[in-house]
């Protein structure tokens, strides 16, 4: 009997093992699997980007709405003061009247009341006047436009324009005149 030298007697062939792991069928299957995974990842990324863009648009809309609401509240708080100023102008004293001085004093007190009304409305919105007169000059709160001779350096001796803070942040420094020691 002829013996085939390509097989050794003790070698067993198993038909269930895919001897060629790099076979075209297996590579095609892995490629299809990788392509499907890439498609799923791309779709997920695109959904995430769309969600993010929608989130940004929604936040921009909410911020715009918040700003508009803040404007509305501010205007509503200031309207009574505007009404008072208009009434004060309609009732200004006639300088030709015999009792002008007396009427002017009453009118002036009314204007002071309107200023107090405005200060109160601003305070309710977090606005605070910066104290300047008699204080030591502070460039964070004051803007000096002139120096005059005085007893000490850097003391605010005149306030030309009030300064204001909004919730602790300077929105306009006080315009002041300061002293310079002789």
> Percent of residues in helical segments?
40-55%
Main sheet characteristics: 3 strands, antiparallel
Uncertain runs with pLDDT below 50, 5 residues or more?
11-17
* Number of beta strands: 6
Structural class estimated from helices and strands: alpha+beta
Q: Report the portion of residues in β strands.
A: 15-25%
Specify the number of helices: 2
Number of domains: 2
Distance between the termini: 133 Å
Mean pLDDT: 88
Order of helices and strands: HHEEEEEE
Write the layout of secondary structure elements.
Blueprint: H1 24-90, H2 100-124, E1 127-130, E2 142-150, E3 156-161, E4 163-166, E5 169-172, E6 174-181
Parallel strand pairs: 2-6
Antiparallel strand pairs: 1-4, 3-6, 4-5
Helix pairs in contact: 1-2
